[in-house]
Amino acid sequence: xxxxxDEHIGSRVRIARNAAGLTQVQLGDFLGRTxxxxxxxxxxxxxLDRYSVIAAIADQCDVDVTWLLGQPYxxxxxxxxxxxxxxxxxxxxxxxxxxxxxxxxxxxxxxVPVDLATLAAQTRSVSTAxxxxxxxxxxxxxxxxxxDLNTAVLAGGEGRETAxxxxxxxxxxxxxxxxQLGYADLAWSAAEVAALAATHLDDPVVRAAVAWDRCGALxxxxxxxxxxxxxxxxLRELEPLVATRRPEGAALSLRGGGGAGW
Length: 262
Prior knowledge:
By secondary structure, this protein is mainly α. The protein contains 14 helices and no strands. The chain has three domains: 9-68, 434 Repressor (Amino-terminal Domain); 76-197; 202-262, no CATH class. It has helices at residues 9-19, 24-31, 35-43, 51-61, 65-68, 80-85, 87-101, 116-131, 135-155, 160-181, 184-199, 204-220, 224-242, 249-257. It is elongated. The termini are far apart.
């Protein structure tokens, strides 16, 4: 009898394969197996107990072997596995965001454009869920949001600056969520996406905000020296905005409590 959807490796194979944009036939061909074999693995009817095959699937689908095995960061509270289930799709969206923001040629949208007001509302919803420590909800909402923002950035036009700001916010939320889930390397990738988005904006407040996220990612990797260097550079950039008779509120808040989101 097949196991429940969150109790066997096949469910994670299915999630990873879908996130990588592969069909069961394509994954089977890569492994030298049939489509029905892949289908049976994903349904839990076929055991997957050879590490070499598991590693090959992880490599082809661009996911961590540890995640595919359900270790070591599986949350114990109810709903934790749901959060991890969406990490492969989030990884894909962040990777595309990095390529788009670095100006890589030949990239095309993966979906139809969504109006910016809707994207802004979705970004606020994700942030609210993170503040409530609802990681499964955050992880569920982030992958489609990041991909919709990728589409908005690629579309360009007058809305591009707003899309960049929203993408920076979404990437910052992703960084905090991923750190809490235990994906330190992917959290750093999210922080870098936020930083790339900020470089396209002439806004020192946004740059300082994403700098704190870099610090958070660095501290989770015990890189104290680099975290201090990043924080000090951000504080220097904020100084002209707060050293006035009427300091900018957002800049003052960042300068005084920049480490609060670490």
